[in-house]
Design a protein that fits this description.
Length: 276
């Protein structure tokens, strides 16, 4: 009885198999930067659904994500869109670890605290919408480092301070809205560029900030009143000075007249006058 023939791989076949194993990509895990970014967001915000450590440790499968509000592109977090979800908490600085992020929309929630200047590390960011929250503090001037920004929408918050002049250097910026905050000071000239017949951004981008002034906003009513008050004070002071000067002259003339008509002096004067 013959024994079954056993086929052993040749040396060449073994080499090919080893080569294929070497060049075949291993199953990719989450990008560590994205994982840190999403982990910090989950810890800072309350109200996120289906966000668990297991889910954000592997948020992307190519172009697909099973996380609420996350859009992926080639295995990286490309977009975070979480508007109107009643989210509370603060925006974490570590959000800047999502270095491939191009759109961040956390609008119409209940977020508080400051806008982290670390968001300037999102160098690919094109859309930043943090409107209709309770954010406070200043607008970070470092946002000007995000050279691809097309949209900055921060309206309906509680932001204070001035609008950074550096934001006017964002040449791609097509939408800018900081209305209904508590901003003060002049509107940067480069955000109110008067080139052509219209400005770069119109008044609706800036209204609702009591102490903000400059083109394209209309003149401040309180400021006009203060100018009128200054003019009135000047005119009043001049008039008072004129009245006092006139009164002093009148008193001097009366005193001179009394001196001229004193007894004894009257005879001298009549004696010198010629007879007619």
């Amino acid at each position: 009885m013959s024994r079954p023939t056993q086929h052993h791989p040749t040396a060449a076949a073994t080499a090919v198999i080893l080569l294929l194993l070497a060049v075949s990509p291993a199953p990719s895990g989450a990008d560590p930067d994205d994982e840190r970014c999403l982990s910090s967001l989950q810890q800072s915000l309350s109200g996120l659904r289906n966000w668990s450590k297991a889910s954000f440790s592997a948020p992307c499968e190519g172009f697909i994500s099973h996380l609420q509000g996350v859009t992926c592109n080639n295995g990286r977090v490309y977009k975070l869109s979480l508007p109107g979800l009643s989210l509370a908490g603060t925006i974490p600085p570590d959000l800047s670890n999502c270095t491939n992020l191009q759109s961040l929309d956390l609008s119409s929630n209940a977020l508080s605290g400051a806008i982290p200047p670390e968001l300037s590390g999102l160098l690919n960011l094109a859309v930043l919408n943090l409107s209709a929250n309770r954010l406070s503090g200043a607008i970070p001037r470092d946002l000007a480092r995000c050279a691809y920004l097309n949209v900055i929408d921060l309206h309906a918050n509680q932001l204070t301070g001035s609008i950074p002049d550096e934001l006017g250097l964002l040449v791609r910026l097509s939408t800018f809205d900081v209305s209904y905050n508590r901003l003060s000071g002049p509107i940067p000239v480069l955000l109110a560029n008067r080139s052509g017949t219209t400005g770069r951004f119109n008044a609706t981008s800036f209204v609702g900030n009591k102490d903000l002034y400059g083109y394209p906003l209309p003149p401040m009513r309180g400021h006009a009143l203060s100018v009128l008050a200054i003019v009135g004070i000047g005119l009043g002071s001049g008039l008072l000075s004129l009245v006092l000067s006139f009164s002093a002259v009148c008193l001097w003339l009366r005193a001179t007249d009394r001196t001229a008509t004193m007894p004894g002096e009257e005879g001298k004067i009549s004696h010198l006058m010629p007879d007619y």
